[in-house]
């Protein structure tokens, strides 16, 4: 899948010589109107701790710095990181974002983070789950992603886009699709439409075990065309579940709240890893 991790200078400026690198999924954002709309949606303020993932050539970085004063950027491309270090207002972390400790960044800043960026489309889901582990350290997140992924993130129960990704993000974030972006906004243009998503953390419901939720959701969506009695029903039997749950549905028909209820360790449940031998429903 084509990804977008880097950007070109704002319209009207000379473009530095930098060849987009396919292995990093680089597509440079060049539409000035789109850039302004994204920054307006983020609405950065002085004194906030902003972290940008994949700043590339700095098309979005520059207006963010203009409003916020300072910015931490995470860039894997060595050449682009070297360019970025020339800007004294930037703290450059040259690293794979999947190895960055966002909790440590928040601790160093002594405040929660506002995370923004144009995520590599080919590894966007691993990045979203990596950030999920640091949700307590985040004020909000604004990302450009493949529109198809944003649709899945923001989906409602019963839709074809509703799935494991939906549940595992919506249990900790309020998710809003903010802006659709066409391929022509990039150079070179990707083969997919893009969108900006806003992710605002919400408090974890009391009693929900994150590992158990992950297990429940994975099992439920393992065969999404089948009724849950064929998948989740077996899992619930194996865990001694004695409560009521409608298994005559498919996984995409179950609201997030019902998955959370199952993950709240109901009476009779066996902790993850201690399941009995599954029985037939």
TrEMBL record:
SMART domains (alphabetical): rADc
GO molecular function, one term: 16S rRNA (adenine(1518)-N(6)/adenine(1519)-N(6))-dimethyltransferase activity
Main localization (coarse): cytoplasm
Xref: SUPFAM superfamilies: S-adenosyl-L-methionine-dependent methyltransferases
InterPro entries assigned: KsgA/Erm, rRNA_Ade_diMease-like_C, rRNA_Ade_Mease_Trfase_CS, rRNA_Ade_methylase_Trfase_N, rRNA_adenine_dimethylase, SAM-dependent_MTases_sf
Keyword RNA-binding: yes
The entry's keywords: Cytoplasm, Methyltransferase, RNA-binding, rRNA processing, S-adenosyl-L-methionine, Transferase
HAMAP family: 16SrRNA_methyltr_A (MF_00607)
Function comment: Specifically dimethylates two adjacent adenosines (A1518 and A1519) in the loop of a conserved hairpin near the 3'-end of 16S rRNA in the 30S particle. May play a critical role in biogenesis of 30S subunits.
Protein name: Ribosomal RNA small subunit methyltransferase A
Organism: Piscinibacter koreensis
């Amino acid at each position: 899948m084509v990804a977008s991790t880097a950007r070109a200078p704002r319209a009207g400026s000379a473009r530095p010589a930098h060849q987009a690198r396919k292995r990093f999924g680089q597509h440079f954002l060049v539409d000035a109107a789109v850039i302004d709309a994204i920054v307006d949606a983020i609405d950065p303020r002085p004194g906030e701790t902003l972290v940008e993932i994949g700043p590339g050539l700095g098309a979005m970085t520059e207006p963010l710095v203009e409003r916020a004063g300072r910015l931490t950027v995470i860039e894997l491309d060595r050449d682009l990181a070297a360019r970025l270090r020339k800007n004294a207002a930037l703290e450059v972390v040259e690293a794979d974002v999947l190895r960055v400790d966002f909790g440590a960044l928040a601790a160093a800043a002594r405040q929660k983070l506002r995370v923004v960026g144009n995520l590599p489309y080919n590894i966007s889901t691993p990045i979203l789950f990596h950030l999920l582990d640091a949700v307590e350290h985040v004020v909000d997140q604004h990302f450009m992603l493949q529109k198809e992924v944003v649709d899945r993130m923001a989906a409602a129960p019963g839709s074809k886009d509703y799935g494991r990704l939906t549940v595992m993000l919506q249990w900790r974030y309020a998710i809003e699709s903010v802006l659709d972006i066409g391929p022509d906004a990039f150079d070179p243009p990707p083969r997919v439409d893009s969108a900006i998503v806003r992710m605002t953390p919400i408090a974890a419901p009391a009693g929900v075990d994150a590992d158990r939720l992950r297990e429940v959701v994975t099992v439920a969506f393992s065969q999404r065309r089948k009724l849950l009695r064929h998948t989740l029903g077996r899992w619930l039997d194996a865990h001694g579940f004695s409560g009521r749950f409608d298994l005559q549905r498919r996984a995409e028909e179950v609201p997030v709240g019902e998955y959370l209820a199952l993950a709240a360790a109901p009476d009779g449940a066996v902790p993850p890893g201690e399941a009995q031998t599954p029985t037939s429903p």
